[in-house]
Amino acid sequence: MTTSSSVLNDVNIEAVGGLIEAVRRNPSVGDTTWAASVTWRGGFRSDAQVRDFEPVFSDEPQGLGGTDSAPNPVEQVLAALGNCLVVGYAANATARGIELTDLRVDISGTVDLHAFLGIREGHAGFDDIRASVHLESSASDEQIAELHQHVLSTSPVGHTLRAAVPVTIELATA
Amino acid sequence: MTTSSSVLNDVNIEAVGGLIEAVRRNPSVGDTTWAASVTWRGGFRSDAQVRDFEPVFSDEPQGLGGTDSAPNPVEQVLAALGNCLVVGYAANATARGIELTDLRVDISGTVDLHAFLGIREGHAGFDDIRASVHLESSASDEQIAELHQHVLSTSPVGHTLRAAVPVTIELATA
Fold first, then answer.
1. Domain segments of chain A: what residues?
2. Which residues, in sequence order, are bridge partners of residue B171?
3. Which InterPro entries match (chains A, B) (predicted)?
4. What pLDDT score does A91 carry?
5. What is the mean pLDDT of each run of 10 residues along chain B (174 residues)?
6. Which residues of B touch A155 (CB under 8 A)?
């Protein structure tokens, strides 16, 4: 049991509160830009560089022609959704004074490979994605249900997937 | 310079061809399901388990209340897009007999934090995503342009982001 809100759930809620105040004072502070640079390593292998972190590797299963050395891109999308939901629950539980004792998100999604393989035109992406949230807390069912709804309504990756996002992909001129 | 199509671009194009034939013969082979399981590690830290691979870590920058130990979820989405595009170029270049000598995809995207922070309701996800593809090959500009258009029309992660995907997120009953 934690006794100070500053360490509840090990979340630095003051930093979040400070950011909220900063964005309220100056809305442009809320305009954030994120980036990644991905380098091909031969075959279906690549690695993604984000800021100064260790590169994140990607490959495809052997059945899809890869060498199965790392999660593939669609699995990475599911992982990103789960990671984003975890931040949402941790942040908003802490803001409500709710202590979380355990949190796990299991995610699955289906992709029909016909479009990717060029067998027919159409949607090549996920047809649906399902997440099951395992959350342990002493909070009431009503508090957890309200927390859950708030997280769903504010999840950056959740909204990215649920909405049609403009994506521009251009060949750089040499 | 490679001399056998089986090793062009280090891509196992026979495996891809075999999969295409298998899906043509039995369309249900193209119905694929992917999964990830994400576990909260306190604060805004989590790790995503995909199959038997090493877990992929996630965190948030300090300005957002995290401890900045790993790429955050929206950066992971951009990385997944780049990794997916790389597979698309490598697979489809190889199928066309085009040798790639270098390939890098730089991606950025903007997120307005107002919705995530609960300051106002609305779209919490990426407002736009831009990718710049640096591709080196001896193929003609026309061949590369055709390859590029084919990759855009068949990219699983690209289509996932550009379309509104049904996402169901439910609290598991204890």
1. 33-70, 71-173
2. A133
3. KH_dom-like_a/b, OsmC/Ohr_fam, OsmC/Ohr_hydroprdx_reductase, OsmC/Ohrsf
4. 96
5. 65 93 95 98 98 97 96 98 98 96 98 95 97 97 97 97 98 80
6. 116, 124-125
Can you tell me which residue has the tokens 């390939």? B103
Tell me which residue of B48, B5, B159, B146 sits closest to A105, measured CA to CA: B48
> Is B1 in CB contact (< 8 Å) with chain A?
no
Distance CA B64, CA B61 (A): 5
Helix (H, G, I), strand (E, B) or coil at A28: helix
Residue B120 has what DSSP assignment?
S
Place of tokens 């649906």: A128
CB contacts, 8 Å: A30 with chain B: 112-114, 117, 119
B43 CB near a chain A CB, below 8 Å?
Answer: yes
- Name the amino acid, one letter, at A171: L
For chain B, where are the E strands, in sequence order?
31-40, 46-49, 56-58, 100-112, 126-137, 167-171
Q: What number is the ipTM of this complex?
A: 0.95
Token pair recorded at residue A74: 């669609």
CATH top-level class for A71-173? alpha beta
The predicted model scores a pTM of 0.95
Euclidean distance between CA atoms A13 and B130, whole angstroms? 32
